[in-house]
Model the fold of this input.
Amino acid sequence: MMKKRFLSRTFCVLALLAPGIGGAAVTYDEAVNGDFANANLASTGISPGTFAGVLADGINTIKGAFGNSTAPVRDTDVFSFTIPAGYQLTAIDLAFTTLSGDSGGGAYFGIQGGLNIGTGISTVGSNLSNALVSDSGDLLASFAAGPEFGGTGLAAPLGAGDYTIFLSETAAVVGYSMDFAVSAVNPVPEPGEWAMLLAGLALIGGMARSGKTGFRA
Done:
């Protein structure tokens, strides 16, 4: 019985010491922050992206919509982001929604390192990767499995640096929400966390000594 109580108290202390889990923070929402840049679709097109921000540790969400080939100017989305030094991108959880039309053939998603991306027929092959997407899933995994239309390739997780994404659809209007999962490459406890850990270990040691004394009684 004493051993069970000791273990129960130990787990409670460790739970209190564990750092809190950060909530999702919207990095960029087209409906709030404005439309992303349109791509230069000329054959040799290279396009800069709207800078969405520096991704933070945890989940960062980017939302928008693109497509509609019947519009005077087709709405494509080009946006850039930064993964800070010491961090990595482990997943891009994509929620894909067809708002109108037929996206059965898949929408084009491309990624390139830097703050520009190839968006023309003769330049998309110079990008890191690309994929035709028609459903929700891990977009980073699709990029890592590709490229489908020429590219140098990439490996997940994605390391620190600047990246640009290009989205295009000719037969439908597509809505999307991307959750970018970012984590430290080698997590190091903050000074305050070390102090809490040491205090917790001292408390556990005191509980152990108290438990032994009570057991003898």
Observations:
- The chain has two domains: 20-186, 189-217.
- The CA atoms of residues 74 and 121 lie 16 Å apart.
